[in-house]
Amino acid sequence: MKTEQQYFEDAVSLQTNMDKMETHKENSFLIYNAFEVPQDDEFIELLKEKQPHILVITEDWCGDAMLNNPILRKIAEAANLDVRAVLRDENPELIDQYLTNGGRSIPMYLLLNAAGEVVGKWGPRAPVLQKFVMDGRAKLPAKDATDFEDKQKIFYSQLTAEYTSKPENWLAVYSDIRSTWLPVLQLSQ
Fold first, then answer.
1. How confident is the model at residue 189, as a pLDDT?
2. Rounded Cα distance, 185 and 17, in Å
3. For residues 77 and 62, what is the distance between their CA atoms, to the nearest angstrom?
């Protein structure tokens, strides 16, 4: 089986991944063009110093990837990092090593040190957004209900609006990635 470093070496840049999107591309670039990385942040300075590689496991149909990938891309650009992306559905053996509650939830971001070892991970969403998603799903009817699909489509539209129109959600993603990875970076050599 390939190592995460080998997946990274074979992957496309996150920019290329976003440029090739077919689903959620417009919304993803709306976030990318509007989000600004906070200035004078020790997190960005530490990323610049340590120069980790980041491997993204993603799919362009994923609403969380629509939100998180542009924010991660902005972080990477601010720190001059190499971030590359692989598709989850083409790499089940990789995502199966990073399940969330037993599921293949994405996006998943793997922080690799200079030796190519995974020293941190983040994904699929910030806690405040996890609560929003879980609260919304709890209001849906049972999956076998006749109106389930219609209600789910409405919920997904609301979720997309929440993700694309509220800069506080973008900052929540940034802050959660930062708080997850900053201690790892501070400890790494």
1. 60
2. 26
3. 22
Which residue in the block uniquely carries the two structure tokens 């650009």? Answer: 77
Task: Single out the residue of 109, 155, 151 nearest to residue 135, CA to CA.
Answer: 155
List C-alpha distances in Å: 20 to 17, 25, 50, 90, 170.
Answer: 5, 8, 29, 16, 22
Question: Sign (positive/negative) of CA torsion 64, 66, 67, 73?
Answer: positive
Query: How far apart, in Å, are the Cα atoms of 72 and each of 79, 80, 187?
Result: 11, 12, 21
Residues of the chain with pLDDT under 70: 189
Q: How far is 59 from 168, CA to CA, in rounded Å? A: 24
Residue reference for tokens 């629509």: 66
Distance separating alpha carbons of residues 85 and 94, to the nearest angstrom: 12
Q: What residue type is 72 in one-letter code?
A: L
Pairing of strands 53-58, 83-87: parallel
Integer Cα distance of 49 and 30 in angstroms: 29
The pLDDT score that the predictor gives to residue 54 is: 97
pTM tops 0.90: yes
